[in-house]
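Section 5: illustrative case.
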C-alpha cells in the first residue's frame, strides 16, 4: 500500500476545478494511501479470480497466454494488472497512471508480491512509449476519467504491436451510473445516521475529520468522473480510432443493486470495522447475484447493466 498521499490544500482544490488533469492528479494522489481499503482491493484469491473473470468475460480468452509485454493505463494501485499477472494472463507488466501517488502505490504492491514491474507517470492521451511496444494494453475503471477517450484509443493502438489487444473493464454505463449514484447516496445518508446512534458510535462511526475528508473527496469526485458510456457508442469510438475485432460486454444488474450499497457502506464506516469475513460475505453475495445477472442478460438489454468492458485489436 502507498504511504505517499497528502490531503490537497483548499487552494489546490480551487485550482482543480479549472484544470481537469490537475483535479485527476490531486484527487487520485489523495486517494492513493487509502484506495485499497476503500475499495476492498487485495491481491489474494478473491481479487485474482475477480480480475481474471472480468478479463475472460470481455475477451472470451482468444489468445495464447501469457501476454508477454503488458501496459496498464490508469493502473491505480495495480488492482487489475497485478492480479492478471498472478492469474497467469500477463507476464512483464508496466503500470502507469496520471497520479504519481498511484504509481508509487502500484509499485509498492508489486514489490510486496515479489514482482519486478516498471512504473511510470503517464497520461493515457499521450502515452510515453514507442509505437508497437506492447502485446496487450489493459485498463480498469479508467477511461471515464479521460477527457478525450477516442484520442486515448488512438494512443493505445499506436503502442500496441500489430495484432495486439486492448481490454478495458469496469467502466460505468449511462443507465447504470444513474441508479448506482442514487443507491450510493441513500446508503451514505442512512449509514451516517445509523452509526451516530449511541450503541454503534464508538465501533462504527467515522470521526468528524474523516467524514469531512470524505465530503471533500465526494465534491472532487464529481469533477473527476467525466463520462458514462453507452456500449454501442463506446464500440464506435474504438472503431473510429482504428481498432478491429471490437466487442463490448456489460455486467452487473442485480449485483450492482446490492453491490453499490455494500461498497458505499464499506466507505462510510470506520476503517477496519468490517474485517475479512465481511469482505468474503460481500464478494460471495456479489458472485451469486452476478450468476443471476448472466441469466437475465439473455432478456434484459445490455445498456441497463452497470459495468461495460471493451476489447479490440490493432490491425495486424
Ligand atoms: C477509478 S481509478 C481506477 C484505478 C485502478 N485501475 C483500479 O481499478 O483500481 C482511475 C485511475 O485513473 C487515473 N487517471 C485519471 N486520468 C488519467 C489519464 N488521463 N491518464 C492515465 N490515468 C488517468 C487516476 O489517477 C486513477 O488512478
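Designed sequence:
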Amino acid at each position: 500500500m502507498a504511504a505517499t498521499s497528502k490531503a490537497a490544500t483548499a487552494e489546490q482544490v480551487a485550482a482543480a476545478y479549472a484544470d481537469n488533469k490537475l483535479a485527476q492528479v490531486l484527487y487520485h494522489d489523495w486517494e492513493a494511501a487509502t484506495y485499497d481499503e476503500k475499495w476492498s482491493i487485495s491481491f489474494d484469491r478473491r481479487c485474482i479470480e475477480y480480475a481474471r473473470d472480468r478479463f475472460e468475460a470481455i475477451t472470451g480468452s482468444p489468445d495464447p497466454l501469457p501476454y508477454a509485454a503488458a501496459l496498464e493505463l490508469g493502473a491505480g494501485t495495480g488492482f487489475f494488472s497485478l492480479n492478471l499477472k498472478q492469474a497467469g494472463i500477463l507476464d512483464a507488466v508496466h503500470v502507469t497512471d496520471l497520479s504519481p501517488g498511484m504509481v508509487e502505490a502500484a509499485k509498492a504492491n508489486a514489490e510486496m508480491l515479489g514482482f519486478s514491474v516498471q512504473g511510470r507517470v503517464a497520461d493515457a492521451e499521450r502515452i510515453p512509449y514507442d509505437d508497437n511496444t506492447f502485446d496487450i494494453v489493459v485498463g480498469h475503471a479508467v477511461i471515464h476519467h479521460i477527457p478525450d477517450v477516442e484520442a486515448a484509443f488512438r494512443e493505445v493502438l499506436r503502442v500496441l504491436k500489430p495484432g495486439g489487444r486492448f481490454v478495458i473493464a469496469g467502466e460505468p454505463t449511462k443507465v447504470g451510473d444513474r441508479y448506482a449514484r442514487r443507491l450510493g447516496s441513500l446508503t451514505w445518508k442512512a449509514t451516517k445516521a445509523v452509526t451516530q446512534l449511541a450503541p454503534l458510535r464508538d465501533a462504527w462511526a467515522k470521526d468528524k475529520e474523516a467524514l469531512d475528508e470524505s465530503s471533500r473527496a465526494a465534491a472532487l469526485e464529481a469533477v473527476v468522473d467525466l463520462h458514462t458510456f453507452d456500449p454501442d457508442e463506446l464500440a464506435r469510438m474504438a472503431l473510429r480510432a482504428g481498432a478491429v475485432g471490437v466487442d463490448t460486454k456489460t455486467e452487473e444488474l442485480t449485483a450492482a443493486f446490492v453491490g453499490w450499497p455494500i461498497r458505499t457502506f464499506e466507505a462510510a464506516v470506520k476503517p477496519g470495522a468490517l474485517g475479512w469475513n465481511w469482505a468474503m460475505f460481500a464478494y460471495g453475495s456479489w458472485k451469486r447475484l452476478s450468476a443471476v445477472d448472466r441469466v437475465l442478460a439473455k432478456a434484459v438489454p445490455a445498456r441497463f447493466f452497470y459495468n461495460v468492458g471493451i476489447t479490440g485489436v490493432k490491425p495486424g
